[in-house]
Amino acid sequence: MSAGRKVIITCAVTGAAHTPTMSPYLPITPQQVAEEAIGAAEAGAAIVHFHARNPEDGRPTPDPDVYAPAIDRVRRESNVIVNITTSGGPKATVEDRIAAALRFKPEMASLNMGSISPYGRQRILEKFEHWQHAWEQELFVAAPSRVYPNTEDIITRTIKEVGSGGTRFECECYDVGHLYNVAYFADIGLLTPPFIIQTVFGFSGGIGLDADNMTHMRNVADRLFGSDYHWSVLAPGKHQFRLCTMGATMGSNVRVGMEDNLYLEKGRLARSNAEQVARMRSILTLLSFDVATPDEAREMLGLKGQGRADG
C-alpha cells in the first residue's frame, strides 16, 4: 500500500464489555453516546460504531427505543457513517440482536463471523473492590460459562433481514476460521464483495496479539478474497494503538474507542472517545497517511449513503 492512501478511522464509542465502574468517562445515556459520537467524528472518525445502554444503570440493551435519541441526533448533526452492532449477549435472541439495525437501516452493521467463548474475564473482579451496580459483578462471575453464539442460522438470518435494507456488513473476525466463514457465506451468495473485514486481535477466546498473527490473518484474507476486500484492525486495551499502527503500515484501516480501550496511555483514562481518535489520527499523520472523510469512506466501501440510510 502506498503511504498516501486514505485510512478509515472507526470509533466504537461504548460497546458492551466495559462497565460504569471501570471508567467515569464511559458514555451511558443516549445523550452521552451521541455527544461522544459527534466528537469522535469531529476528531477524524469516518465511521461510528453503536451499542446502546440502559441510561439508569449502564447495562447493555438492544432496545431500539434506547438507540433512537443517539442515532437521530448523530444523523441530524453529523455526516459520519453510522454502524450498528448485531451482536448480543449469550441469552439474546436474534430478534433482539437485529432489532436496531432493522429499524434504523444504517449504512453499515457489524456481523460476528463465528461463535466465541471468553476466557479469564472473571479476573477483572480482582481489580475493583466496589461496583456501582450488581449486574457488573454478575457479568464477570458468569464469564467462565458464557458462549456468544454466532451459528450459521444466526448469521444467515442477520444477513438476509438486515441486508435487505441495503446495509453493508463489517465482518468481525476474531480468529482465522472466521475468515473462512466469510468465504463460505460468499460462496453461497449471501455476502458480496468487496468484503469489509475487521480482524480482531487479543480478545479472550480469539487469536492472539503476536505480529505474526496479524501477518497470518492478512495472508489468509489475501488468499481467500484477493484484492476484493477492505481490511481493518482492532485490539483491546494497551494494545490498541500499537496494533492499529502496525496494521496501518501493513495496509489496514483502524478502529479505536472506549468499546475496546478505556485508556489514552498507560495510567491515564481517556476522557473522551475524541481523545483516542485524535491520538490515532496524529499517529497516522506522522506516518504520512491521509485520513478518510466520511464521504471518502462511503465511496471506498461502496455504501448506500446517509440519505438512503432509512431504506
UniProtKB/TrEMBL annotation:
<keyword id="KW-0808">Transferase</keyword>
<keyword id="KW-0862">Zinc</keyword>
<protein>
    <submittedName>
        <fullName>3-keto-5-aminohexanoate cleavage protein</fullName>
    </submittedName>
</protein>
<dbReference type="Pfam" id="PF05853">
    <property type="entry name" value="BKACE"/>
</dbReference>
<dbReference type="InterPro" id="IPR013785">
    <property type="entry name" value="Aldolase_TIM"/>
</dbReference>
<keyword id="KW-0479">Metal-binding</keyword>
<dbReference type="InterPro" id="IPR008567">
    <property type="entry name" value="BKACE"/>
</dbReference>
